[in-house]
Write a structure and sequence with these properties.
This protein has about 250 residues and is mainly beta. Helices cover about 10% and strands about 50% of the residues.
Length: about 250
């Protein structure tokens, strides 16, 4: 009898939650996350005007026009929260499967889509430059501030500088085989005025290092040529080597 009572109580609670308005979660959001308006229910809701404060002082908040979620009930019985999420930013959108366990570890799977980016979303992007980032089957896991898994690839497309000059498109691929940090990837150019080929190493704390070569094409703008000249003289094939790194 107690089992049936428990089932009935659980069913009642699920029914209540199914009708609970999304605004109920407003006070439960982490301090760094802000939502201008919440629509729908706890299970199927939408946040318009999402802003996420950056961990680095002085950096502008990350702004997302809108986020929609569909919560899965069964993972709740195992002590975790899982949802299908869809984001809109500018004219782009992206979808992903998100899960967070009791220990606070965050897992993102099947991240696909294309979004407009700025320096808030991609800090290494120089001021005044514009681009879009395209995700393809990206999966990653975060435990606190540490990156514990990363697979998939991303493309930085339609890159333009402050003068509106096209700088082409680039792909960063970390492969599909899961492994521990550090994560080794490959950056290569897809089109545009330069040919880039570089090895990328991403640490668990998100610090990174990039080493490779770059060649300017005959159609490269003079401003880009001057920028590349700072790397030193090219070799016989026209390649210039570069090495850059950054701490989180």
């Amino acid at each position: 009898m107690w089992r049936w009572i428990a089932v009935a109580v659980l069913g009642f609670l699920l029914m209540v939650l199914a009708r609970a308005p999304a605004r109920w979660v407003q006070d439960k959001l982490p301090p760094r996350i802000h939502c201008a308006s919440l629509l729908g229910t706890v299970w199927n809701g939408r946040c318009n005007g999402l802003a996420i404060d950056q961990a680095v002082a002085g950096r502008a908040p990350l702004a997302i026009d809108s986020m929609q979620w569909n919560l899965h009930p069964l993972p709740l019985l195992r002590g975790s929260v899982a949802a299908d999420v869809k984001l809109w930013r500018g004219d782009g959108e992206a979808t992903a499967q998100v899960q967070r366990g009791l220990g606070g570890a965050l897992e993102v799977r099947a991240l696909n889509g294309q979004l407009a980016v700025d320096r808030a979303l991609l800090p290494p992007l120089p001021a005044g430059w514009q681009a879009e980032v395209a995700f393809r089957d990206v999966a990653f896991a975060l435990d606190g501030n540490l990156l514990t898994r990363l697979t998939g690839s991303g493309r930085l497309v339609n890159v333009t500088d402050t003068r509106g000059s096209s700088l082409g498109s680039y792909e960063l691929d970390f492969g599909q085989e899961p492994h521990d940090a550090p994560f080794n990837g490959r950056l290569r150019s897809l089109d545009g005025p330069v040919k880039v080929d570089a090895a990328v190493v991403l640490a668990a704390n998100t610090g990174w290092e990039m080493n490779g070569t770059v060649i300017a094409s005959a159609t490269a703008p003079a401003s880009l040529e001057r920028m590349l000249a700072q790397l030193g003289p090219p070799d016989a094939a026209g390649r210039r080597t570069f090495s850059i790194s950054a701490e989180p």
